[in-house]
Amino acid sequence: MMNRGGQRKGAGRKPAPDGTAKIAYGTKLDPVVIEYLRECDNAASTIETTIKRSKAFREWLRSEG
Question: Is residue 13 one of the residues assigned to a domain?
Fold first, then answer.
Protein backbone atom coordinates (compact mmCIF):
# COMPACT_ATOMS: atom_id res chain seq x y z
CA MET A 1 0.00 0.00 0.00
CA MET A 2 1.37 3.43 -0.98
CA ASN A 3 1.19 6.27 1.53
CA ARG A 4 1.82 9.06 -0.94
CA GLY A 5 0.10 10.44 -3.99
CA GLY A 6 1.01 9.28 -7.44
CA GLN A 7 2.45 11.31 -10.28
CA ARG A 8 -0.11 13.06 -12.38
CA LYS A 9 -0.23 15.90 -14.86
CA GLY A 10 -0.15 19.31 -13.15
CA ALA A 11 0.96 17.92 -9.78
CA GLY A 12 3.71 19.51 -7.73
CA ARG A 13 4.94 22.96 -7.00
CA LYS A 14 4.67 25.44 -9.84
CA PRO A 15 7.86 27.19 -11.02
CA ALA A 16 8.49 30.76 -9.91
CA PRO A 17 8.02 33.47 -12.54
CA ASP A 18 11.19 34.35 -14.47
CA GLY A 19 13.56 36.56 -12.50
CA THR A 20 11.83 36.06 -9.14
CA ALA A 21 13.42 32.83 -7.93
CA LYS A 22 15.81 33.30 -4.99
CA ILE A 23 19.42 32.13 -5.31
CA ALA A 24 21.28 30.62 -2.37
CA TYR A 25 24.35 32.67 -1.41
CA GLY A 26 26.75 32.18 1.46
CA THR A 27 29.27 34.63 2.90
CA LYS A 28 31.33 35.29 6.00
CA LEU A 29 30.04 37.91 8.46
CA ASP A 30 31.28 39.53 11.65
CA PRO A 31 30.24 37.57 14.78
CA VAL A 32 28.29 40.57 16.11
CA VAL A 33 26.27 40.71 12.89
CA ILE A 34 25.58 36.97 13.12
CA GLU A 35 24.38 37.42 16.71
CA TYR A 36 21.97 40.15 15.59
CA LEU A 37 20.66 38.12 12.65
CA ARG A 38 19.98 35.13 14.89
CA GLU A 39 17.67 37.32 16.96
CA CYS A 40 15.69 38.40 13.89
CA ASP A 41 12.56 36.51 12.84
CA ASN A 42 13.81 36.22 9.25
CA ALA A 43 17.53 36.87 8.74
CA ALA A 44 17.40 36.62 4.94
CA SER A 45 14.59 39.16 4.74
CA THR A 46 16.45 41.49 7.11
CA ILE A 47 19.59 41.37 4.97
CA GLU A 48 17.68 41.84 1.71
CA THR A 49 15.62 44.77 3.04
CA THR A 50 18.70 46.51 4.45
CA ILE A 51 20.60 46.22 1.18
CA LYS A 52 17.65 47.34 -0.96
CA ARG A 53 17.19 50.44 1.22
CA SER A 54 20.86 51.44 0.98
CA LYS A 55 21.87 54.39 -1.16
CA ALA A 56 24.69 52.43 -2.79
CA PHE A 57 22.30 49.72 -3.98
CA ARG A 58 19.78 52.22 -5.36
CA GLU A 59 22.55 54.02 -7.27
CA TRP A 60 23.86 50.72 -8.62
CA LEU A 61 20.36 49.69 -9.67
CA ARG A 62 19.82 53.02 -11.43
CA SER A 63 23.09 52.64 -13.36
CA GLU A 64 22.20 49.04 -14.38
CA GLY A 65 18.75 49.82 -15.73
Answer: no
Output the DSSP codes for 13-50.
PPPPPTT-----------HHHHHHHHHSS-HHHHHHHH
How many folded domains does the chain comprise? 1
Q: What's the rounded Cα separation, in Å, for the pair 43 and 37? A: 5
**pLDDT tens digits for range 9-33:** 888 888 889 888 888 999 999 999 9
Domain interval for residue 42: 31-64
Mean pLDDT, range 33-59, rounded to an integer: 97
